[in-house]
Amino acid sequence: MQAAILPLSAGWYWITQGYALFRRQPLAMFFWSMLTSLLIMISYLIPLIGQIVLIIFTPLLTFLTLCACRKIDTGIRMMPGMWLLPLREQGVKRRLVRLGLAYLASSFIGALIATLPFVNSLMGAIDPAGGQIDYATVSAAMRGPLITFGILYVLISALFWHAPALIGWHRIGMTQALFFSMVACWRNKWGFLLYALSWAAIFYGLGAAGDFLVAAGAGVGLVQWITIPVNVLAAAVLYCSFYPAYMTIFEPQAKAAG
User: What is the pLDDT of residues 152-205, one digit of tens each?
Assistant: First the structure.
């Protein structure tokens, strides 16, 4: 498949188009965002196993999100019983679960590569000679592995970013899908950089606004009641923005940004 090369402004275009898509059926996408947030919360209540299951099913959830956005884009109203319909197509669920297992393996290998060079410093911080753990030392020892894994995870994300749609819609093999996804992300690296920085700024701004309300005297409970649905709404727009990113890069009939 041929991936289009878009300008830097495409990163912001995907966000604005995601917001426009969200506005067409806000309740449906807010419901989906709330459901996925709930699944993430439940996964963290089950240490390790919960996170493993969540990683495996991430490509499947991404594909369901893209399918819903495609229906909304064509004017179809999303009803509760329609969300899982794409998984009824022959072989789709199996291929997406295989992709999820590959995602899990890649994340594990990335974590292993990021940790191995720092094993001695980590063990020294966790099990000091004096017997008393210094949490500042532990935090400093973890900085290297976290930064290394963050860099590796950017590469892993590029491999898997478009793969669910390529596998689910175009029925191509997993190896090809990973390759095409990586090439597409590389060709549009500046657009994706602006996209990532913009979303980081948006969520940081929402967090800062909540801190400001607490500092201004608002109760923590009240602020949480305000910020939780706002963050769920922002996540819904984020999910909607996946669709225009895919369409402008891989679909020739889509309107390119800029």
Answer: 999 999 999 999 999 999 999 999 999 999 999 999 999 999 999 999 999 999
Kindly report the pTM of this predicted structure: 0.90
CA 15 vs CA 18, 198, 237: distances in Å = 5, 9, 8
- How far apart are alpha carbons 151 and 142 in whole angstroms? 15
**How many other β-carbons are positioned within 10 Å of the β-carbon of residue 94?**
10
Q: Is there a domain that residue 212 lies in? A: yes
- The answer to whether position 256 is within a domain reads no
Q: Residue 121 sits in which domain range? A: 10-250
Beta strands in the chain (DSSP E): none
- Domain assignment present for residue 3? The answer is no
Cα–Cα distance for residue pair 37/70, rounded to 1 Å: 21
In angstroms, rounded to a whole number, what is the distance separating the alpha carbons of residues 124 and 162? Answer: 40
Count of domains forming the chain: 1
Single-letter residue type at 33: S
